[in-house]
Prior knowledge:
This protein is of the alpha/beta class. The chain is 33% helix and 24% strand. It is elongated, with a radius of gyration of 20 Å.
Amino acid sequence: MSAVSEDAxxxxxxxxxxxxxxxxxxxxxxxxxxxxxxxxQAVGTALPVQAQAGDNLALHHxxxxxxxxxxxxxxxxxxxxxxxxxxxxxxxxxRGIAGLVIDGGVRDTDAMAHRGFPAFSTxxxxxxxxxxxxxxxxxxxxxxxxxxxxxxxxxxxxxxIAVVPFARYPEVLVAARxxxxxxxxxxxRLRAGESTLDVYGFRPLGEPIRLNERTNL
Length: 217
């Protein structure tokens, strides 16, 4: 089992937003990527896949090439085809694949929810695909401006998708733990009645103009 797989439950508790903030870098995917079904969440290592618009043969090859804990991260150019559905989800789960992120469409979303296979896509589409181009697997791709490399750590949930470069993963994990602990302390103070202005030290930044203080109304 990889270190990322061992940390999966912890990373899911932190969530994509905390991991992103802890990284102190632009490690987020474009928010156009959304869960294919409510509640989908995934942690794993990226297997980049380059597909061709309207052709999902590369995804079939990627399923065969992937191993336990991998998340297929697929650049299909955002074309609105149904590249992935229940049959492929079953094949992926049998190999221990942890999820799918695709710039393109998926279908059979209710079936994937029932099976618990986490998929994130830029659309849902029933439109069929061809099988002509085998694509590339494991070679870095660019997903809406974000470079994704083999082994990058993916944390995906309803808030978004964080892509942490593998070399930075240990330090980001430590920072995420520290951030989560700090936020729990802050929320304890807020539950006790303190203001966010005081907890975060925002008062020195100035006072807002209130409606009844404006003289030109």
